[in-house]
Every structure is written in C-alpha cells, then in structure tokens.
Amino acid sequence: MKRCAIVGTAPSWVRTPWADPGLHIVSLNDAYSLGLKRADEFYDIHPVDHFWYRKKDQRQINEKDIPPGAYVRPEGHLEWLKNFAKTNPVWLHGEPPDDWPANAQRFPWEAMEAKYGSYWSSGPAWMLMHLYERGYRHFEIYGIHLSTQREYVEQRGGFEFRCAQLLGLTITERMHNGLYFYEGRDCTIVLPQESPLLRHGWKYALEPRPAPKSNPYAEELKVAQIEKEALVKALIQWPKGQDKTKALKRLQWLEIVETDCQQMLQKMSSSGVLKAQLVAA
C-alpha cells in the first residue's frame, strides 16, 4: 500500500514520523520555514501573481499592509521552490517558467474537477484527492487542523467531506499511541489526537451540548477597559509633582490591547463567527 503524510503548519506537525522510510512526506506553501526534517514533495497551488512577500526575519505583519486577496510568503519563496524542484516534485497553480526544472508542474485542476466534482474549499483537500488519484491509500495528516476562525468556517467542511469520501460508509475507528486510525473501504486516514478533524466534541442527541466557550477577546477587552477607566480617573487626580511615567506607559499599553481586541472582534463579526457564538449562547 502506498503511504504518505500531508504536513501543514499547525502544532501537530512535530508528530510527523520523519524516520519512517516507507512514508512519502508531502508539504505545502511555506511550511519549509518551520524546519521540516524532510519532504519528498511540495505543493503551492496559489496564483503566483497574488503572492505578497514578507522579509525573512519579519515575524509580525500589519494586516493593513497586505493587499486584498494576497497570499503571504517569505522573501525568496519562489527561489526555494525552484531549487527544491531540482530533485523533487513541485505542484504550482500555473505552468512554471521555462527555466524551472521539469519536476515543477502545473496542478491538474481540470482533470481533478472532472472526476471529483466542484466542491473544493482548501489546498489540503486538493492535495488529498490528488494523492489518492496517484495511488496512495494510507494518509497520515499532521499540522492540518483548519481550526482558526476563517479556516473553520470556510475550509474544514470541504476537507472532512473528502476524508469521508475516501473512507466510504463503513469505518473502523481505533486509537493507538495518541493517533486516531480511521480505516475505511480501501483507505486509512491517521490523525493526531491534537487535531480537531473528524471530531465534533459531543455526540448530538446522545450527549448534552457543552456550554459555549466565552470569547477570549471580549473578556480581555472588558478587563483592559475596566483598568483603563480606573487609571484615567487616577491620572486626573494624580498628586502634583509625583512621577506618572509608569502610569502613562501602562495607559498606552492598555489602549494598544483595547485596539487589538476590537480589531479581532470586528474580524470575527464580519466572518459571522461572533454572531454564531452569540446565537449559541
């Protein structure tokens, strides 16, 4: 049986069994920047002309600096992929430039859609089915959680649909060494227990629904605003001649926290996530 691992950038990527010689390791986008111990194949199937490059040593990015619809990549990303393609397959959105190695190829969008339909909501979903098309039947998935707000809403359902499509109607489930094994019709899918994929949290109609989780940004905003209000009142009545440098710095920090939390709540609200949480509550 042909076996492969799809490796992303969520925390469980470190569980990848790098030393397993029979496991074909496939990764995507700029995951190499994590320091993967090895990879046999890479996908970056996003349009190259939509890339926005950050400097290699840049860790924080102002979201306002990123053009709408752009994909953030580290400086030198295309050069890395081109060099990797000298010895290993690389799958791209379009035809690679003429000076790229033959291992770099355009992803076969049309053939995949003709065979597997039009429901595609994530890069890992395309990868999973492409690997299946090429004969792989054992899939280990590390670092693909699709659990951030945007990924959960937009991408997770499509990826889980493809997993279910491969497994079929009858599934045997077991857990071993912190890994969930889902064995289906002719495929096996392995997920680390840290991954939320193919799990819901409770069994509908058989177990009570857990209390909705509080929103951490709303809580942090409330705490910051209470402290800020108290600090402003204290500064108004500050004793004459007493140094207030520390208090002013603290006030500046609280205003930064307040702005950050408000921006995060606004993003969640615009994606519909916050609204859904409020309805559930």
Judged by helices, strands and strand pairing, the structural class is alpha/beta
Q: Secondary-structure element order, as H and E? A: EEEEEHEEHHEHHEEEHHH
What is the radius of gyration? 23 Å
Number of domains: 2
Helix tally?
Answer: 8
The whole-number mean of residue pLDDT values reads 89
Q: Helical proportion?
A: 25-40%
State the total count of DSSP E strands.
11
**Overall body shape:** globular
Low-confidence stretches: 273-281
State the end-to-end CA separation: 47 Å
Largest sheet: 9 strands, mixed
Strand order of the largest sheet: 7-6-3-2-1-8-11-10-9
Beta fraction of the residues? 15-25%
Can you characterise this structure?
The protein is α/β, with parallel strands linked by helices. It has two domains: about 1-190; about 215-280. The chain is about 35% helix and about 20% strand. It has helices spanning about 75-85, 110-115, 125-135, 150-155, 155-165, 215-235, 245-270, 275-280, and strands at about 1-5, 25-30, 40-45, 50-55, 70-75, 90, 105, 135-140, 170-175, 180-185, 190. The strands form two sheets. Strands 7-6-3-2-1-8-11-10-9 form a nine-stranded mixed beta sheet, sandwiched between helices. Strands 4-5 form a two-stranded parallel ribbon. Strand 9 and strand 10 (about 180-185) form a beta hairpin. Helix 3 (about 125-135) runs parallel beside helix 5 (about 155-165) and helix 6 (about 215-235) runs antiparallel to helix 7 (about 245-270). The chain is globular.
